[in-house]
Fold SDR family NAD(P)-dependent oxidoreductase.
Amino acid sequence: MNSHSASSQAILITGATSGIGLACANYYTSQGFHVIACGRNESILNGLNTKHFLTFDITSAEQVTAASIALKQHLSQHDLQLTQVILNAGTCEYIENVFEFDAALFSRVITTNLIAIGYCIEAFLPLMAKGGQLGLMSSSATYLPFPRAEAYGASKAAISYLGRSLRMDLAAKPNQAIGVSVICPGFVKTPLTDKNDFAMPMRVSSEQAAQRIFAGMEKRHFEIHFPKRFTFILKCLSWLPEKLLINMLAEKSTK
């Protein structure tokens, strides 16, 4: 991806205090990269084996801007190239009763999973080195409509579109040559998915997810999706007529 040595390549990862973000921070560190772990919990960040950390809330535009100023100074002081940014931080909440639609929940999820990504892109994209790669965390849930996933699915579908659109505009800037990867995991064992009350077929560990993300980012893949068997099934099902999908996937009320 980049002619610089791994130790001179800075990798910024948001949501690095747990789940996929934590696993990515650990894996990139093990490969010799200068990892800048980001999150809200300073005590966890301070305990990581990464080179540097930034503490901020991605939903606060002011905190994200302050983090970008600190990041710019850190890159300059240590002669680093910001070659990858993985915007992984996010949340998941479900609409339990569609007839009592929880607009506050919907707003929380959209703000964290989408609006906050805009803050991060504004702050960190200008700091990326030529030939860098931006990773946006979407989900394989975008391939199909799932019950109760109005907020989560909508936020991740928007991220997928955002990534495709960004890719178009960045391709028109050959002097920068920054690529975009949209990351679409299947079920990954994390503190968020541990709360799910439904079956999660072919679930992989966060460590396995990190290795797949690492490989996909290094190869500058447009879409990084895994596990492949699971995502292939979802993509095939997405070709079915909508009426058939509703009959297959809708949760039938017993009341």
Notes: The CA atoms of residues 130 and 176 lie 5 Å apart. The radius of gyration is 18 Å. The chain has one domain: 6-249.
